[in-house]
Amino acid sequence: MLPEDIDLLIAKAREAMDSAIAPYSGFRVGASLRTDDGKIYTGCNIENPSLMLSFCAERVVLLKAITEGERAFGAMAIVSSDGSYCFPCGACRQMLFEFASDIPVYLAGDKGIKRFSVTELLPHAFERIGD
Ligand code: THU
């Protein structure tokens, strides 16, 4: 991916972070997902007073894109409101592995951009049985 495409993907994740609903943690997250043909979907974290019902930004964007029929992905970007690198939680890593196992994941923070493969984030992943 071109550097300007990565910058755009990160900018879209930042925009999406503005829509986050995070009154309980105060930690807003934005995620963006680029399809193979260059379309960008976005997601944010959405919390609920029953905390276990909260949604992470990464799974929100995966669900949005998959629901729209997308299956081929090129990259994901993740940002957080405190400028720290937001490493995806275990559940999001598992879902990334299931639907986008070969994409780079860009974490953008105050100290710059880090790039990880999904298998770096989730080695020895549980793999689904059958189709
Ligand atoms: N969160 C995400 O959206 N993505 C992550 O990778 C980690 C955590 C959200 C969940 C919750 O709304 C808040 O951040 C604090 O955990």
How would you summarize this macromolecular structure in one to three sentences?
This protein is an alpha+beta fold. The chain contains four helices and five strands. The protein has helices at 3-17, 57-67, 90-100, 118-121; strands spanning 29-35, 40-44, 73-80, 104-109, 112-117.
Describe the structure in your own words.
With 131 residues, the protein is of the alpha+beta class. It has a single domain, classed as Cytidine Deaminase, domain 2, CATH 3.40.140. The protein is 31% helix and 24% strand. The protein has 4 helices and 5 strands; from the N terminus they run H-E-E-H-E-H-E-E-H. The chain has helices spanning 3-17, 57-67, 90-100, 118-121; strands at residues 29-35, 40-44, 73-80, 104-109, 112-117. The protein has a 5-stranded mixed β-sheet. The longest helix is centred in the first third of the chain and has 15 residues, at 3-17. Residues 22, 25, 27, 29, 45, 47, 54, 56-58, 86, 88-89, 92 line the site of tetrahydrodeoxyuridine.
The ligands bound in this entry are: tetrahydrodeoxyuridine
**CATH topology tier name:** Cytidine Deaminase, domain 2
Shape: globular
The proportion of strand residues reads: 15-25%
How many β-strands, per DSSP? 5
Oligomer state of the chains in this structure: single chain
Spatial order of the strands in the main sheet? 2-1-3-4-5
Radius of gyration: 14 Å
Please report the first level of CATH classification, the CATH class.
Alpha Beta
Helix content: 25-40%
